[in-house]
């Protein structure tokens, strides 16, 4: 008899969770969950992980493969540039932001914001960057034709890496979880849409004349390198590559996503400490609050772009607060607001989020959307420390379609996700001047 090797490919599994006890078993294992209907969640895991859950009394049922395209269906990866049908590598995502700033110096500026864990430790890695886009000086360039010409020649009217009240700011961050492929691509398209459209597209021109738009196209470039190294079978790396806490048993990422690294979206100081302490787990929170250089880079970016709008002694963030932060993730089709918000602010943030996210997305706190508590996240930090209107958007459905899950077909970016999210990003930019005033029927105009 021929022995068959165990299947180590990742699959989506539906797991019945009739009570909180079953949810807690999955959470303690550090496995990310997505609701799949009443009393049921979906996880991404290999068969070994599914068996381990069975041994703890759970009953996972195989649903669909994680990979939406078989390798033979995809074009060959371009070395160092693309993988899995067209998704861009970290050097390409970072390089594209630099190219936009070079091509359109009148409306775009690129700033370095910190180093990744590998770079901090002299092991390669990357310098992280943020791209700012905003309009030219309207006193010098009044017509759209003048603006279209000036965007290639002059300096932008703004985009300084310091708090300002000159224009409200909208910050978009992407791919903090490396395996959430579509998020970096959406940041790429948002950059191109704004840069190409200024002076020729009325909506874009209005947005950049009234708002500063800031974009971090990839927050976890070290992790994306691991994902992309799988080529047309991307690896399931979620975390950064800090292996200083990693035991030998998980020195390489497995097909469930367990392995080395810290979950950057559980490592922020605000509300830190409620997630996994297992260094192998997908949701390992790190050895201490804010331990990771990538986390510090984003935290400090918030502090450089926005003033602290929280009242002394706590209480509600005032209605006059400005600025919006969106952190892109996948999947589930959710708009998630900070759990730590006051009741008044929570109502305001939900109203804002409903105006921003695509129709049909579920809006609420972490427990009201994904069904479990998360701590130490980007939106915990942005809202909890500075009072910012902060939202997590989870892109893509929880189903077996080609556009579902962590690794949708590349064609879904342009056929489905970008048409949905372009409107969301524009709306966020338009509302950045009055995010806490959106409980009214009509959006407040940006001044």
Automatic annotation (TrEMBL):
<dbReference type="GO" id="GO:0006508">
    <property type="term" value="P:proteolysis"/>
</dbReference>
<dbReference type="GO" id="GO:0008270">
    <property type="term" value="F:zinc ion binding"/>
</dbReference>
<protein>
    <recommendedName>
        <fullName>Peptidase M14 domain-containing protein</fullName>
    </recommendedName>
</protein>
<comment type="similarity">
    <text>Belongs to the peptidase M14 family.</text>
</comment>
<keyword id="KW-0645">Protease</keyword>
<keyword id="KW-0482">Metalloprotease</keyword>
<dbReference type="GO" id="GO:0005615">
    <property type="term" value="C:extracellular space"/>
</dbReference>
<keyword id="KW-0378">Hydrolase</keyword>
<feature type="active site" description="Proton donor/acceptor">
    <location>
        <position position="394"/>
    </location>
</feature>
<dbReference type="Pfam" id="PF00246">
    <property type="entry name" value="Peptidase_M14"/>
</dbReference>
<feature type="region of interest" description="Disordered">
    <location>
        <begin position="240"/>
        <end position="260"/>
    </location>
</feature>
<feature type="domain" description="Peptidase M14">
    <location>
        <begin position="86"/>
        <end position="447"/>
    </location>
</feature>
<feature type="compositionally biased region" description="Polar residues">
    <location>
        <begin position="240"/>
        <end position="257"/>
    </location>
</feature>
<dbReference type="InterPro" id="IPR000834">
    <property type="entry name" value="Peptidase_M14"/>
</dbReference>
<keyword id="KW-0862">Zinc</keyword>
<dbReference type="GO" id="GO:0004181">
    <property type="term" value="F:metallocarboxypeptidase activity"/>
</dbReference>
């Amino acid at each position: 008899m021929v022995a068959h090797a165990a299947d180590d490919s990742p699959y989506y599994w539906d797991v019945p969770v009739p009570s909180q006890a079953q949810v807690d078993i999955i959470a303690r294992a550090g496995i990310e969950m997505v609701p799949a209907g009443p009393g049921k969640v979906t996880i991404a895991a290999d068969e070994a992980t599914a068996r381990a859950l069975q041994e703890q009394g759970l009953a996972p049922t195989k649903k669909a493969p994680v990979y939406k395209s078989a390798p033979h269906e995809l074009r060959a990866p371009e070395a160092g540039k693309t993988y899995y049908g067209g998704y861009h590598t970290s050097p390409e995502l970072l390089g594209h932001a630099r190219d936009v700033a070079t091509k359109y110096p009148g409306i775009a500026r690129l700033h370095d914001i910190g180093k990744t864990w590998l770079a901090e430790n002299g092991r390669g890695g990357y310098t992280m960057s943020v791209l700012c886009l905003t309009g030219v000086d309207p006193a010098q360039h009044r017509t759209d034709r003048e603006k279209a010409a000036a965007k290639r020649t002059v300096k932008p009217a703004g985009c300084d890496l310091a708090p300002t009240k000159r224009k409200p700011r909208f910050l978009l961050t992407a791919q903090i979880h490396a395996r959430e492929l579509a998020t970096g691509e959406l940041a790429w398209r948002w950059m191109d849409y704004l840069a190409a459209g200024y002076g020729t597209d009325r909506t874009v021109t209005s947005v950049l004349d009234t708002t500063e738009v800031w974009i971090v196209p990839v927050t976890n470039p070290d992790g994306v390198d691991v994902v992309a190294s799988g080529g047309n079978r991307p690896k399931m790396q979620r975390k950064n590559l800090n292996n200083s806490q990693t035991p030998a048993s998980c020195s390489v990422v497995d097909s469930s996503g367990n392995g080395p690294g810290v979950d950057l979206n559980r490592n922020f100081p605000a509300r830190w400490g409620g997630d996994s302490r297992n260094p192998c787990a997908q949701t390992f929170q790190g050895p201490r609050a804010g331990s990771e250089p990538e986390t510090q880079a984003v935290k400090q970016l918030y502090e450089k772009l926005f003033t602290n709008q929280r009242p002394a002694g706590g209480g509600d963030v005032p209605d006059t607060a400005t600025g919006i932060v969106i952190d892109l993730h996948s999947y589930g089709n959710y708009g998630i607001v900070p759990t730590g918000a006051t009741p008044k602010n929570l109502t305001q943030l939900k109203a804002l989020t409903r105006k921003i996210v695509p129709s049909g997305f579920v809006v609420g706190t972490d427990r009201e959307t994904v069904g479990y508590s998360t701590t130490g996240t980007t939106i915990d930090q942005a809202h909890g420390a500075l009072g910012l209107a902060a939202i997590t958007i989870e892109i893509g459905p929880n189903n077996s379609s080609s556009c579902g899950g962590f690794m949708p077909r590349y064609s879904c970016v342009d056929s489905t996700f970008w048409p949905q999210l372009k409107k969301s990003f524009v709306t966020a930019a338009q509302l950045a001047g009055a995010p806490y005033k959106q409980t009214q029927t009509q959006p407040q105009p940006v001044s």
